[in-house]
Amino acid sequence: MTAQIADAQASRHAPSSRLTSFVEKTEFDRPTLVLDVDRVEEQFGALKAGLGRADIHYAVKANPARPIIERLVRLGSHFDAASRGEIETCLSLGADPETISFGNTIKRPSDIAFAWNAGITLFAADADEELEKIAEHAPGAQVYIRLIVEVSQADWPLTRKFGCDKDTAVRLLDYAKELGLDPVGFSFHVGSQTRKAEMWAPALDALAVTWNAAKEAGHALTLLNIGGGFPAFYGEAIEAPTEYARHVIELVTERFGDVPRIMAEPGRGMVAEAGVIVAEVMLVSRKSDRDVHRWVYLSIGRFSGLAETEGEAIRYQFETPRDGDPTGPCIVAGPSCDSADVLYEKRPMQLPLTLKSGDRVVIRNTGAYTSTYSSVNFNGFPPLDVVCI
Questions:
Q1: pLDDT in tens, 314-343
Q2: DSSP codes joined into one string, 84-123
Q3: What is the pLDDT of residue 376?
Q4: Kind of pairing, strands 385-388 and 327-333?
């Protein structure tokens, strides 16, 4: 990506003027995530324009802040819930139970019963035992089987833990029928932060084989849940949301035909760019006089909201009051007394040479998977504060 293109991308994905103004005028006692809910609404509209007839089921786990859920309910969004707690949040803010999918394939029996009694009728599964639990506690419910995605070009693949292979998936559809459930289709997830729509193609090619095998086995499939993967800007080029979503739907239609019902579960792509984290530099040091890299310790780390720096797959963008000064490579770490609390070391960050303790750091596009990853009291540090504007 040329410098000119990079600058254009950064400008297009910059925080809203409302968000920037609020941050500039506000003092923060501790690391704080500030969210612009209007920006979430804009992103919902942009994704909906591209997804067309597909239902958006917002992945609540990305950010369950009540003002966000409340706004999305008003906009007509549906929801993907991973737990009883997320279901309760959505219901308490006016979501219709019929718009909520219990998308976690690992559920407690009591939570299945709670969801069913609350009016939720759509559940995910990828194993015999999960179907048995659903059949016992949500008799007659609709179920979709999650497929494993073994071909992923995402920055953060989600293979191994979730899903099942083709033969198992078709067998589970049969078993669901035996149990008195209504098996309606399949779900999958191409991997978080799939930066280009064309990157979906290899996974879709493989998944379409399972879809066709199920139809040949006599299953009248009516639902395809294409999951998440919709990206946010972390320094590498991504397509505009409407263009991206439209291209994804075209790729899906080419391979799966006219599916009666399509679900999409954007999380990161819905809320990441609506938020910034305000933190500060706690220490700048070198380990020896020969050390090429400085160590920059922030007031926020892996255990206080930046867990997605694991593997350095997500590369957050930093702003400081000293931007424009000469820069040098830095290893960036958090404040805790844990040696794993290092954010960027394999690929050091370029930060101003003049940076020092007390300088404010604004971490851009952090609206997704930060507040929910923040520990309650690790090392005595308070959880990440959240402010919605």
A1: 999 999 999 999 999 999 999 999 999 999
A2: HHHHHHHHHTT--GGGEEE--SS--HHHHHHHHHTT--EE
A3: 83
A4: unpaired
**CA–CA distance, 147 with 280 (Å, rounded to integer):** 42
Q: Cβ contacts of residue 165 below 8 Å, gap of 6+?
A: 147, 148, 210
Q: What is this structure's pTM?
A: 0.94
Largest Cα separation within the chain, whole Å, is 71
SS3 292: coil
Q: Is 3 buried (19+), middle (13-18) or exposed (0-12) by CB count in 10 A?
A: exposed
What is the Cα gyration radius of the chain? Answer: 22
Beta-strand pair 78-81/342-352: unpaired
364, 279 Cβ separation under 8 angstroms: no
- In angstroms, the CA 155 to CA 139 distance is 38
Q: Note the helical H segments in the chain.
A: 3-12, 17-25, 37-51, 66-75, 84-92, 109-117, 128-137, 166-178, 201-216, 241-256, 268-271
Which of 220, 223, 214, 143 has its CA nearest to residue 179?
Answer: 143
Cα distances (Å, whole numbers) of residue 34 to 20, 105, 145, 149, 376: 10, 31, 37, 34, 18
How far apart (Å, rounded) are the C-alpha atoms in residues 229 and 233?
13
CA distance 386 to 44: 21
